[in-house]
Amino acid sequence: MFGAYGIKEVDVEFLHERKDDIHLIDVRTESEVAAGVINGAIHIPLHLLPLKAGEIPQDKPVVIYCRSGARSAQACAFMQQKGYNNMHNLSGGIAAWARAGKPIASLS
């Protein structure tokens, strides 16, 4: 599925079913992440993405998420401009994940 600007998107069910087959990146702020994450996510705040882009693996699909899907769509667009073609945005972000009753993990 494609979202705005040709960004590839996945929904909550796709992520839930395939979570072990992807790299998951959380681009929210420190304070947002402190409230909980999707288990297995790597935290790279959006403002640090240009510095850490090279650390994102390319050996399997990458799903990027934020609170609602807007910042993660920006992150996907940025990464695509850098030549990464394995980026996917989580449609609706962690808010959609939580609304679907999926687990939110604590960082502690």
TrEMBL record:
Domain Rhodanese: 18-106
CDD domains according to UniProt: RHOD
Lineage per the UniProt record: Bacteria, Pseudomonadati, Pseudomonadota, Betaproteobacteria, Nitrosomonadales
Top-rank taxon: Bacteria
Cited SUPFAM superfamilies: Rhodanese/Cell cycle control phosphatase
Name recorded for this polypeptide: Rhodanese-like domain-containing protein
Pfam families found in the cross-reference section: Rhodanese
PANTHER family attached to this UniProt entry: FAD-DEPENDENT OXIDOREDUCTASE, PYRIDINE NUCLEOTIDE-DISULPHIDE OXIDOREDUCTASE
